[in-house]
Task: inverse folding
């Protein structure tokens, strides 16, 4: 085999590993994005803990096909960037926000989350979902609320008891 074919196989294997290691993979059409906008876009992905790469469509298609996923074949046409997310929602949130910010210069094509294909509408829905950390915080707040209310009620009862005992003590002192 030629060195070029072998190099491409190595790139495909690298893409397969990135897909397996990512919680989400978002495909983005970046046609019309300026260099400055692209730099800002990459920075936003980095902040969200995502990796943003421009890869050849045929290599990404082969990587997905090796994983037994063929739904992306139609989406891998034209300029395509791939965002590998460290969580389920981060890459989708950044991509959808960028679509709004750059006046639809870029568009989201589709995504791969938890072994499932998501179309553009699915990615938009995913971007509106809270992150895992936000869900955990809400859950802890829900668990903590009854305990806080109970402690408040107990302190109110003890406060009333102290006031009542103080009133009784003052009345006896006057008598």
Result:
């Amino acid at each position: 085999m030629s060195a070029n074919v072998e190099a491409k196989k190595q790139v495909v294997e690298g893409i397969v590993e990135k897909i397996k290691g990512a919680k989400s993979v978002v495909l983005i059409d970046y046609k019309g994005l300026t260099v400055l906008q692209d730099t800002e876009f990459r920075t936003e992905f980095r902040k969200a803990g995502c990796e943003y790469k421009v890869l050849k469509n045929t290599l990404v298609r082969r990587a997905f096909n090796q994983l037994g996923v063929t739904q992306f074949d139609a989406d891998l046409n034209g300029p395509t960037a791939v965002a590998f997310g460290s969580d389920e929602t981060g890459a989708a949130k950044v991509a959808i926000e960028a679509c709004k910010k750059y006046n639809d210069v870029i568009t989201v094509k589709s995504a791969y989350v938890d072994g499932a294909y998501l179309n553009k509408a699915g990615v938009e829905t995913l971007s509106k979902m809270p992150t895992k950390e936000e869900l955990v915080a809400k859950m802890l707040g829900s668990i903590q609320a009854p305990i806080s209310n109970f402690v408040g009620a107990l302190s109110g009862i003890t406060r009333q008891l102290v006031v009542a005992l103080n009133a009784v003590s003052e009345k006896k002192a006057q008598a």
Residues 130-175 form one domain. The first strand starts at residue 24 and ends at 29. Helices lie at 3-21, 35-47, 57-66, 90-101, 120-128, 132-174. The radius of gyration is 27 Å.
